[in-house]
Amino acid sequence: MKVTGWKTRAGELLRIYGRRIVGGGILLCLLALAVSYIRPKQQLQTVTVNMGAEEERLVRLEPGVTVSYVCETRGYPMAGIQVGIGKYGRQLDTGWLHVWVYGEGQETLYSESLLALADMDDGQYVYVPFDNYERCAGELSIAFSYEPEGGEENFPGIYVNGETVEDARTYVDGELLDGGLKCYYVYRVDYYPLLYDLCLALFLLAGVFFLTEKGPGRRKCGGNEDETSTVG
Amino acid sequence: MRRVPLDKRGKGGLAAAILILAAAILLEIFAFNFHGIAEETYTDTFALDGSDSRVRVGYQQFLAEVDEQTLEDLRYQEEMNRLYYELLGAGYEDQLEDRLVEKDGKTYMTVQQAVIHVSLGEERYIKGMKFAYPVDESRYADYGVEAKFYRDGELLNDYLMYDTVSSRLDEGYMNVGMTADEAEFITYGDFAFEGEGASVSFWNQFSFNGYRAAFLAGSGWLVLFLCMARELYLRKLHVVFGIVCLYLGLSMVILVGSNQSGWDEHIHFLKAYEASFGSTIETPESAMGMRGKYTPGFATAEERSAVTEYLREHDDMETADISYQSRFIGYSTRAYLPQSLFLALARALHMPFDMQYMMGKAGNLVFYMLVLMLAMGLAKSGRKFIAVLGLMPTPLFLASEYTYDAFITALLFLGFILWLNEIFSDGYLRWQNALLMMACFAAGSWSKQIYIFMIFLLCFLPARKFRDRKSRVFLILGCAAVAGWLLYSIFSAPGAAPTIGVGVDYNLSTAGDRRVQGVSMVGQILYILQNPLTYAKMLLSSMARTLWAYTFGGRAWLDLAYNGLYPTAFGIGTAALLLFACLVRTDGEDRLVLPARYKVLLGVMFAGIAAVIWTSLYGTYSVVGAATIEGVQARYYIPLMLPLLYIFVNNRIKFRWDPVWYYRILFLGVSALNIYGIYEYILRATCF
């Protein structure tokens, strides 16, 4: 292949400024890696836990009834849970779904929240976010109950099915349910943007760093000369 | 050879090109449409609902045994159908489970067949036929139809003629090409055949097949070009490569069309399609079908038209499924970027969906062609190797469908050529060359990390390439770090959010290909450690047994995936071409022979990476303790073939004739292989 003028000039510039270019690239990678580590981004991740349709039914959340779900968070803090709320096809625009999250042997209250039933559709899988989610790791006990407002006589139900999950148990008013709560676990997980690429670029640049020359006016004399042309 | 003045050659060439075009058109009219001209043309339709006295319908039902794999495929298809109907907002009636019967520990499926006799009344030449069967969509099924033709009571086709009637098209087409007076159809379906609305049509018509005529003319022109070119071979071989690659590759792209005949093509399409969007993915029904592999395929030119119409009708972005993704393109998806780019371009140009699908494949081809042309342009020796390897049917087919293989092959070839250039030159290794080389090996291994071992070739560059010891040591450390980083990414996605559910389900003890039951990475590793000699013997015997077939003998070069595999005898052709290229040299060729130590190095690298490929498939695709290694395909050797050829390069055998003929033989050889394959396995099988 013939070597044209611009190629020679570009090659010469790359030779002269090689160390600065590669060094600058390495510094840029290191800086970006530091930023990536210091400021990780977060994303919500939904994990399907028990959503089979077999023996699906509603457990009645009558006032005073508590459905407790004891589960293992699989090593990560849980940001919330999604459970199915049914209204039995009735109008139910008042009242609240009260959710408590306990940890440490079910003695410490980690999170408490009230969700308005008016905001829920019949059959909707509602996302229940946990406060202080960083603490919600290990074995958790999540309790659900209904709090009516005024003289409301209707009540909602919570979806369960006939399947059991290895590291979870469901209780209705303290009695173990034959089956399990239908739910998704929701996690808030960190990720480090560009970490893979930055590390790869860093390794590549570091590998070639000492192949560069020191810079204008400081080039070593002697040795093998680079070829300036190739034969096509 | 006598030199002909350019103007005369030009005129002769033009005349030959016109003759070729005329021959292709005449062939199409008088040979392929002979019956349409010489005999009566007609289209006759028979209703199958009992109203037509020329038709008799009978029924039968029996149990057919179903193996595990078929059952898995059926369940997968059932799930796809269910998702499809959920997307349409329609209810789906589960068909499969009701038809399965367990008996004596085996699974059987209830098969309900209709046997339909059609009397044509008189002897007629049947060019083609259509079986129309509109089915209520909630009872979705692909209905199979077996056809038998008779003349004077004698069966004409002793081979199976079978077609699938997709309920998405409500019809299926078949080429017949027989003179018959009676036809019989046997239906295979998920539910009993009901004749209402069903019909069968036969015809004999003159129909000009543009695909066929264009391919014949184009192939003729290609041969003419290869025979007439002279200086181009000697001065710009990469341009010859580019022209041949583009013609043959585009022929594959266009003729295969929307048929998903590549290895796992729907999965590769899904990734390329998603990467062609930003954060919001819009998936119309046409794309959904391609992703889910339930778009109807075609086997005739008429069926192709019907499928094309279906795809265009269901390409409404207004009703597209919407999903979201991170804007950042994951590293395992980057090999699809050329395909994604062309897909996005086709969408921006408002091309119909079938064209969009082909454009994505063309993106893969263009990237492959350009990178290999660059490698040829930069190569100090061995341009012909890149041309011959790059134009073999399988690599070219891989570059003409949705896959990452072409991206891998192209970049690894380029990286290797840059390495060879350093071996054959005296100057110091320039940092930008080293960076480009390492980047080629790294990017080429993004999707198949196993090839990253090729980066270690840089560690064996001679000492004269380095100014000092420090620069060499750092380069070696850099290579090791890059290789380690890529290999680490097999087990963990660095920087990515942990996939919590997957992390629980897929630990090393269960890791492996989900399509195979009984695989376990840890189990297999333990087995190998406990039985090192047994495994070594199995590995070596597997590698030795397949060595010829997977390198020179044709399996790596003559496999067009689900389109077909060339007969074994064609392997002689690939071996002859490859050995001719590497053992014979011409005058004026930059033939640089590697020193023996580098040949040994390349041999060790080839054997090492091949052993890693076999071992990784033993871990992920073979049952623990299996007596054979399953899942290794010859195409995995393709990126390793360029280094392998260099082992055989020598200066002993010389081509004594005009060097131009040397290159003509090579290019005509690979072109002939491709033209045969495209004609026989793609054009004839799908567009006649």
State mean pLDDT of chain B (0 to 100 scale).
Answer: 88
Class from helix and strand fractions of chain B = alpha+beta
The gross shape of chain A turns out to be elongated
User: Which pair of protein chains has the largest interface, and what are the residue counts?
Assistant: A-B, 45 and 48 residues
Gap between N and C termini of chain A, in Å?
A: 4 Å
Structural class of chain A: alpha+beta
CATH topology of the largest domain in chain A: Jelly Rolls
User: What is the CATH topology of the domain at 42-204 in chain B?
Assistant: Jelly Rolls
The CATH fourth-level homologous superfamily of the domain at 42-204 in chain B? Galactose-binding domain-like
Strand segment count of chain A = 13
How would you describe the oligomerization state of the chains in this entry? heterodimer
One letter per element, helices H and strands E, the order of chain A comes to HEEEEEEEEEEEEEH
The CATH class of the largest domain in chain A is identified as Mainly Beta
Runs of chain B in which pLDDT lies below 50 for 5 or more consecutive residues are 502-507
Radius of gyration of chain A: 31 Å
Radius of gyration of chain B: 28 Å
What is the count of β-strands of chain B? Answer: 13
CATH architecture of the domain at 42-204 in chain B: Sandwich
What is the overall pLDDT average of chain A?
Answer: 85
Portion in beta strands of chain B: 5-15%
Q: Which percent range describes the beta-strand content of chain A?
A: 35-45%
